[in-house]
Amino acid sequence: MKTERIQLDHGAGGRASQDLVAATFIPALANPILTQLNDSALLEFEGVRLAMSTDSYVVDPIFFPGGDIGSLAVHGTVNDLAMRGAQPLYLTAGFILEEGLQLSDLERLVSSMAKAAQEAGVQVVAADTKVVEKGKADRIFINTAGVGTIPPEVDVAGQNARPGDVLLINGPMGDHGIAVLSTREGLSFQTAIESDSAALNGLVAAMLEASSKVHVLRDPTRGGVATALNEVAKQSGVGIRLEESSLPVRREVNAACEMLGLDPLYVANEGKVLVLVAPEDAELVLNTMRQHPLGQEACIIGEAVSEHPGRVVLQTGIGGRRIVDMLSGEQLPRIC
Amino acid sequence: MKTERIQLDHGAGGRASQDLVAATFIPALANPILTQLNDSALLEFEGVRLAMSTDSYVVDPIFFPGGDIGSLAVHGTVNDLAMRGAQPLYLTAGFILEEGLQLSDLERLVSSMAKAAQEAGVQVVAADTKVVEKGKADRIFINTAGVGTIPPEVDVAGQNARPGDVLLINGPMGDHGIAVLSTREGLSFQTAIESDSAALNGLVAAMLEASSKVHVLRDPTRGGVATALNEVAKQSGVGIRLEESSLPVRREVNAACEMLGLDPLYVANEGKVLVLVAPEDAELVLNTMRQHPLGQEACIIGEAVSEHPGRVVLQTGIGGRRIVDMLSGEQLPRIC
Description:
By secondary structure, chain A is α+β, with helices and mostly antiparallel strands.
């Protein structure tokens, strides 16, 4: 989709984002590391393997139930590193502030970052602050980049799924997206929906310690579970079969999605991980996840198959099947 | 300066920026690495020493004589790594795009980044793109973070200046700031003033190869030479004496500064390095710099002294002296 101007779709994490990356960024910047398109890059320094990743955060509103742009900026990048099996260690933080931002809001966000970093066991080692005139940004944007070490025996990447791998998720889908959207739109539901924003590195470390047969880890953020699985299916050249009846969604998130015309499969998560693991270790990994505070609601939702490589297919309750494509347009702008 | 709202001063790189960092960021995020406040952080992994740094770029306009926000985003972070004596290797790039940005402009900027990265010998290994609604950003903001390896024998840091060290710079001051400001304000001068934006890692490597007695490297970006030297004076606990008659400024930059009421000592550079080197190696390092394309106009501009620790003093032509403080307010907003 080569349009003449940037549209909100280009930032939604779905097909338009991918097309932009493929048409504009990859041709110019291509190198063997970047073009792997994993959540983080793998770097080698004299035998030390590091993962490195970056994300900018522009979520609107900057405070939402269950988190804020400060904690999100820590969790998001920590998780991108963890998805490579890395132990996240160091973050950088780049702040773009709009003139007129309340200093008390900035202080609250920085405290929230600090708390999130401490809980995740990472240090913010370098930072930068820029200020732009009122009306040239939207209160605050935060970029974080991070590095972490990958233990020698770990080999987790989007390319590694194999037919037969069992697909797990650590809990229900869509909490983050619905929490942010509800706040932004001033919607209220009977039960408050909180973002699932959380650092997943502890959960991931527990899984990798329990099993050496975890092949793929992917956090379904922008574009949701559907988009993340489409990426993995393409990277690994496998098909992915999803069992509709197994897909976990909170009742209140489901109700909100119905009201808003959204499919929870496409709604952003910030504390969820999709896991593809060899079938013989699936039960072990599932139990390990359930013993962790962030995996108590873990469940099996599908499997990798040799049919329909590159595609995700949903097995519906009545024996039907439908193709689940990646997010094709802008579903929820500025969700992270 | 504890104000209730963020002001443009807070992003100018001078005293207001420092006060914000000291009052808001350091107390919350403090750790032994961050609080060294060098251009980049020093990290150790099983004997491998890495420098890591980040900067966000919000320069207005995004295209200016001698560069653009794309090349600047590469040069700036490469230089922050080089100031620690590191060999820059890998960058991440985070793009925040305003809805409506011309795709052709984005393509031009990404090409410019790619060219700058190739020339500097670094790879962009991870990237992220966000899009915000029209009016919520200003065309494009770019964050880059970078890592590089520090050779075992290298020990360059803002804390290392000693009385007697000779102070050098690799060429005239203020080109970048005046080039950007002229374009923004639609000023035209008889001679076009181009930004000095350049990757300094090659020049730095040549200096460090020639001498093991380079103590401090610092790139005088926002806040200019005056602010950078004040930072070094404080970090090292030395005084710095500047010789006014030795300070290099292009004639046309000087004229522009006079017209605009600016002091070149406070105007941003993006391809300059301040060097403090033991006196016995000063001539050697100076000659090494002059043999490099980016150091042909290198010169000695002062020295570190034991008097007035923490302060920078300018020796004027007529035998007078005046204290050169760091930038105290907003001189040039969005210069980088």
